[in-house]
Each structure stands twice: as C-alpha cells, then as structure tokens.
Amino acid sequence: MTDPVPRLPSLLEAVLSVGTDLELRATLQRIVDGAAELTGARSAALGMVDPGHDGLLEIRTAGMPETDRSLVGRTDDSLGVPIRVDDEVFGNLCLAEKRGGPFTDEDEQLLHVLAAQAGIAIGNARLYETARQRERWIEGAAAVTNALLSGVAAADALMTVAERARLLADASAGVILQPTDEGGMEIVTASTLDDPGDLVGTMIEPGSPVLEQLLGGEPVFVEDSATDARMTTRVRHRFGPSMLLPLQTAGRLIGTLALPRRRGDRPYTSVERLLATQFASQAALALVLADTQHGRERLAVYEDRDRIARDLHDLVVQRLFATGMMLESTQRRSTDDDVSETLGTAVDELQSTIQEVRTAIFALQQPPADAPTTFRGKVLRETAGAAAVLGFQPSTRFVGAVESRLSEPVAGHLLAALRRALAATSRRPGVSRIEVTVDATATLPDGRPGARLTVYDDGAADDGSPATTETWQSPL
C-alpha cells in the first residue's frame, strides 16, 4: 500500500468541496466528480436507491458517454461504496477504469471517508431543498388566496389556481376537472406552456377506474399517464408523471387539480406530493371563501337595487301617473283641437316614459348577474328584460355561428334593433307570444351574405292585422 499522507490534501479538498453547495443536484455532482478525481477513475456514477424520494435516478461524471454506463458496477475493474443518510442507504457510488492500474485498498478507504462526508452534505442539502420548496408552495398558496379574495370572476379564479400550481410543480400543464351531471368529470380549465389545444372539454367517463377515487376526494399519483391502466382520457398519451389532487374543504368537493408532466420527465417526489396536496386544500378553501365573499357583495348590490326600484316606483312613477291623469282631464275639457292634440301627444309620451321606467324597475328587481360577454348572452339578456315587463319569456332561436360570423359593429346594431322591437312589442295590446330569431346565414336581396333579426308577436298591428313581424337585416 502506498503512503496515504501525500493524498490527504486531495481528500480534504474533496471533503470540503462536497459541502460547499446546498442545492441537492449540485452536491451530488460534486460528490461524483470528487470521487473520480480522488481515486483517478475515468468513470463514476451515483445511483439512487429510492428515485421517488428526490426525483433523481443517477448522477454521472461530466462527459461520461452513454456507452460507458455499463462499466459502472462491473466487478473486475470497479469500486463501489454505499452512501448513507440518516442510517439509510441513499445510493451507491461506483467508479470504474482507474488510470494507471487497478483500484487499491487505499482508494477504498479514501472513498469511505468521502462517502461519510457526502452523507452529511446530502442530508443538509435535502433539508435546504425541502425548506425552499415548502417556502415556495406556501408563498404560492398565499398569492392564490390574495388573488381570489380580490374579487376575480369564477372562471378566472379556477385559472389562477391552475396556473400557479403548474408553475410551482414544474408541470407541463395545470388543469381543473369538475363533476358532470352524467357522473363523470370534465376538464373545465387548462393552463399550459403553449396552446392547451383540446384539453378543455376532455372527459373522464363514468366507469373509469380512477373516477371513484377522484369523486371520493382522494389524491391519485400516477408514474406514467400514458401506460397507467387507470387513466382513460384521450389525452393521456401526452403525459408521464401526474398528480390528481382533490379541491375539497369541509366535505365539499369543488373539483380535481391535475398536474401532469411530460413523458420522460422526472417523477414527483414524496415532498412535492405532500406540498401539492396541501396547496390544493388551501386553494379549495380560498375558492369557497371567494365565492362566499362574492355572494355577500352580490346580495349588497341586490339590496341597493331593490331600494332604488322602490324609490322609483313610489316617487317617480306615481308623480308621472298623476301628471298624466291631469293632462287627460285637461284634454277632455279642452275645446281647442290643436291644444287637445298636443295634450294627447303629451299623454302618450308620459305613458311611454312610465313604461320605460317600469322596465327599468323590473330589471333592477331581478337578481344581479355578471354582464354577459358573448353575443348570445347579450341577446338573452335583452329578452329577459322584456320578460320582466311582459310577464312571460319570449322564445329565442339562433341560426348559424352567430358568435364567429357577426362582427362587433353588426352585433351592436342588431342588439339596438332588438331593443327597439321589444320596446314596441311591450306597448302593443294583446301580446301573449313573442318569437325572436337571429339568423347569421341569411342572404340579402342583393345576394350578399348577411344577418337577419326577426321579431314576431301575436298582438294587433297598427293597421289592424292580428300579428306583427318586425325585420332588421345587415351585411356581415
């Protein structure tokens, strides 16, 4: 055996080197490189006994070709020692092809010393990594809670949860599934690095092996979504490791937060699984609190609208009605035809004004709702407003792809025409049925494609006919 004293400086340098970095992967790389340099090995690798604990499979010396991996672990020219962390084997450090001859007993002794120090450094790096991950997830949960309680809409709230969770988990996607009426689950929100494509709308059909766990509020952890028999969605082949976590609080299941990684990505560690599960519980609580807060705000708005409606009815409408009666009385006593005609016109205008105020009162008394953003929603809002005055709901029919074919100017003019038609219909006597048709596939008289609005009612027209049909049309 050679004298170990000349190699002590190299050993001390290697020992000190492995503890200079608190990041786990960097620490492991220093251990492998230091072992190779200390013993003169051409190839070195550290294989982990439990890859799921830290999400790492193997660390090799830099530049080690893929074909040389088979050299590590050979018994004829290889040297290996276990590395223990807290009395448990973390992994096996293996070296191969010593420069200048076979490995010696001194090499093995030096490697055991390095392995002992490596175990301490790995333990410290693990603690640091866990603390850093926990801090990130806690900060992420706090950010989500603050965002949700700031008053975002329901759809935006779900996207906030999915987006933040995807970033924290280093996942390729963050999706939220919610139960369907048919007993399955459907992806309703998706956050991805690129275009989510057809993720939204993907179904987990009833009878799927994983569905019972998800609907029961149980977390599900999948090593490879593409090959796991429990996964049955049409997009499963895109993903590898995945976590499906219940968004549940106080026994109420809001949905499931799924965080899939790409195929071939590292598996989720036990720490990541724990932190993500805690994040999902916190996010579910924040969603419920935000919904409750939104409900209180809507109730306050409703109470205020109801007060305004009562004031309009008790003060404004009554005064207008009294003024109209005075004008009608004056009109009956008047002997001047011009004055009588003018008074009649004024009475008609007052009646029209009273009707419009009453329409506003009825609209104020309806439960407050978020303003619709789609064209269909805006049309339905107009017919709902008319229903408050008429006492019945007009039927509404859409023909063609109205959302994509109608430009904003055309849609705006059509809505204005609809409001005018409904206002005229509400003043017509004997109306018991209204039919509204919006046709985005119409052909104009000159042959151009266009949009056509038709409003039919069964009330008497001005010319005495038993029904009225108003039509508006415009080029697309």
Describe the protein's architecture and organization:
The chain is α+β, with helices and mostly antiparallel strands and 476 residues long. The protein has eleven helices and 14 strands. It has helices spanning 8-17, 24-39, 51-54, 105-149, 154-169, 211-215, 270-333, 337-365, 375-390, 402-405, 408-427, and strands spanning 41-48, 58-60, 78-85, 88-98, 173-179, 185-192, 203-204, 220-222, 239-249, 252-262, 395-399, 434-443, 449-457, 468-475. The strands form three sheets. Strands 7-6-5-10-9-8 form a six-stranded antiparallel β-sheet. A four-stranded antiparallel β-sheet has the order 2-1-4-3, covered by helices on one side. Strands 11-12-13-14 form a four-stranded mixed β-sheet, covered by helices on one side. Strand 9 and strand 10 form a beta hairpin. Helix 4 runs parallel beside helix 7 (270-333) and helix 7 packs antiparallel against helix 8. The model is unreliable at 1-5 (pLDDT under 50).
Put the structure in a nutshell.
With 476 residues, this protein is an alpha+beta fold.
Number of extended strands: 14
Element order: H for helix, E for strand: HHEHEEEHHEEEHEEEHHHEHHEEE
Task: Provide the spatial order of strands within the biggest beta sheet.
Answer: 7-6-5-10-9-8
Instruction: Kindly provide the radius of gyration, computed on alpha-carbon positions and rounded to a whole number of angstroms.
Output: 37 Å
Instruction: Tell me the number of helical segments per DSSP (H or I, 4 or more residues long).
Output: 11
Average pLDDT, rounded to a whole number, is 80
Structural class: alpha+beta
Beta-strand level of the residues, as a percent range?
A: 15-25%
Assembly state (oligomeric) = single chain
**Low-pLDDT stretches:** 1-5
Shape annotation: elongated
